[in-house]
Structures are given as C-alpha cells and as structure tokens.
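Hi P.,

Sorry for the delay on this. The queue was packed all week, but I finally got your sequence through. Input first:
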Amino acid sequence: MFLSGKKLFITVWILIFSSILFMIIYVSAQVKNLGKQISYIEKKIEEEHDNIRESESEWAFLTRPERIDAISKKLLPELKKITAKKIVNLETIPNSSKLVDIKTDSKEEYPVIRISDE
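Then the structure:
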C-alpha cells in the first residue's frame, strides 16, 4: 500500500537528507585521503630537494681546483702543463691526414684512434 500525503512527504525528505548526509561523509573522506597524499608527495619533494642540495655540495667539494690539481699530480706525475707554444692547428702538421689512423676491431665496441710516427 502506498504512503499517503504527510507520510510520503516525510519519507521523501528522510531519503533526501540521508543521501545528502552520505554524500557529505563520502566527499569528506575523499578530501582527507587526498590531503594525506598531498602531504606524502610534499614530503618526498622536500627529501629530493635535500638530496639535490647534498649532491651539489659534494660535487662542489670534489671539483675544487686545488683538489683536482693535487690528485692529478699524485696520479699523473708525468703529465706536463700545456703551454701556448704547444698548441697548433692540425692543418699546420705536415701530412696530418696520414698520421691519424682510425681502426675498428670487431672485439672492440668503440673505434681506436692510433697516431703513427711516420
């Protein structure tokens, strides 16, 4: 049997109120979940910024000119400084095209450049 007048009106409003209340609770839960995700992502971004700053400071420390100079003197003692007199264009060397021999070997992944003394 169908509800009449006042009972129908009250039932419809109870259903509308219940559905609105359900939607408010559902949306609130979704907003809280998104807020947690945003906080997590912001934390990860800050950690990455810290890692980048740390890496930059390590790089600055490792690439100091005096450190590189000390290491090169220790590991490459026979290395001499290049003076301006030693720098020339390749075209000024007689028969420079014959001096450079690019040889590829099937065992090697990259071509080997050998400079002959001929």
